[in-house]
UniProtKB/TrEMBL annotation:
InterPro entries on file: Radial_spoke
Record has Transmembrane as a keyword: no
Species this chain originates from: Stercorarius parasiticus (Parasitic jaeger)
Region of interest called Disordered, as start-end residue ranges on this chain: 1-22, 201-251, 394-432, 527-551
PANTHER family: RADIAL SPOKE HEAD 6 HOMOLOG A, RADIAL SPOKEHEAD-RELATED
Name of a matching Pfam family: Radial_spoke
Name of the featured protein: RSH4A protein
Amino acid sequence: ERGHGPYQPHEPGYGLYQPGYSPYDDQIPDPKSRTLAIQNAKAYLLKSSTTSGLNLYDHLANMLTKILDEQPRNAVDIIENISKDVKWAHFQKKMDTLRDEHEILPTFEAAEKRKALFLKANGEGDEELEEEIGETPLPNVMETAFYFEQAGIGLSKDESYHIFLALKKLISVQPIQTCRFWGKILGLEMNYIIAEVQYHEGEEEEETEEEAVTEEGGKGVGEVEDEEEEKEKDEPPKSTYKPPPVIPKEENGTGANKYVYFVCNEPGKPWVKLPPVTPAQIVCARKIKKFFTGRLDAPVVSFPPFPGNEANYLRAQIARISAGTQISPIGFYQFAEEEDEEEEVEGGRDTYEENPDFQPLSVAEMVDSLSAWVHNVQSILKQGRCVWLNPLQKTEEEEENEEEEKAEEPDELPQELQQGIGPPLLTPLSEDEGIQNMPAWTAQPSTNLIPQYAVAVLQSNRWPGAYAFASGKKFDNIYFGWGHKYSPENHAPALPPPVQAEYPSGPEITEMRDPTVEEELAFKAAREEALAAAEEEEDEEGAEEDEEEDD
């Protein structure tokens, strides 16, 4: 039978751990066997662990050395703690006596990154600060964080203050007229801190020149291809498929591109400007659901294919969230009187102004009814724009060119391109559609214990992470989340399009079948008969000509 130790019954050393047995008894008369048993026991204790690389022999020796050096009271009661201390000492980083390797803590690295936020610009003095206090576009992030903190919403005070300083640095670099902390979108690797800004008039850079250059280049290549195709004699059949017209993006400062957005992963890192959003990106973003990685250049692998990278997807989600969750107390904004007198513009009004005679409602009134809140951002239509555009509408030059060709145009637009009508600006939240048995918004006071100092807080159930508060004449919106819309059902990706129909088969493209052996023999026989008949005719004609010559 096998023993319960490292030795077999026939090996020296077997039974050393058995009770009542001592290797120093006279039961082992041979000293060689006793020496061998001791060597085997020591070899077992010196066997290294596959996990930590330590061995039990050295560990026990170090424990005994520590106990004899320190001589603690009741050593048997703390033997486990001594064992842990000895093990922990092995994994401590040993410093060289000549050159110490200083360990860089994560807190120190974070402090170095944010060090630039706390430095004043060159020549910045107290006098200049006093002059800029009334005109600065810098938002009071700490005040907004205080109000949201009443409802348990927001970031830590340290991070809020770092974002405060990062926005100040952004304003000092860019020609910004208004600035607001939009929120924070979480990512798998890094997060996005988002700033919503508006440039001064005439300061915003227009990015249409590069697009125009690329379009011109594309036309040149297409013309060359057309010339090559004309030279070909046998042209293949051309496809009759016409792609849907490309819907142009809204101009900067209007619709979904009314604001410009800057993002950074952490306060202290450089701000990056997001590109304008296009209708195609918004339409595709509604059909997919992807987590953000935190890298703006990361590809978005999805179906349907997204037209852009993560920076474009982030910009599309910001536009969708803003259109559905940016709200304000009713009466705070009003339409200008000039617009009231003028006729309504297509798509509804898109501008408003603050109401100087605004009288805020009480917290109880703002919590009891959603009619006390209105949307202050234009809704996005199914087309991907805030203002509908007819893609088949042509300019005067195109109409003149097509009058000669007399091209037939469809009377009705496809369903996807038909005009959509969304809710107008400053629509009350009470008109928002619910989500099955759940309302679109949840309103509650920040506290029920001290209602006279409570703050009205609204939470969006359609976009989890979107919040708004109102206290007197102060209100603000913020978003903290993953950038995903709530769906009561599991996300179902769009199905691929139906399989394209085969080309209609006809005699011009049908391949001839191979003839059989009988048909080949019959063809050869008919061919030989035809040749023989032709030779006979030639001979007869030749004989007739000879007779005429003799006559």
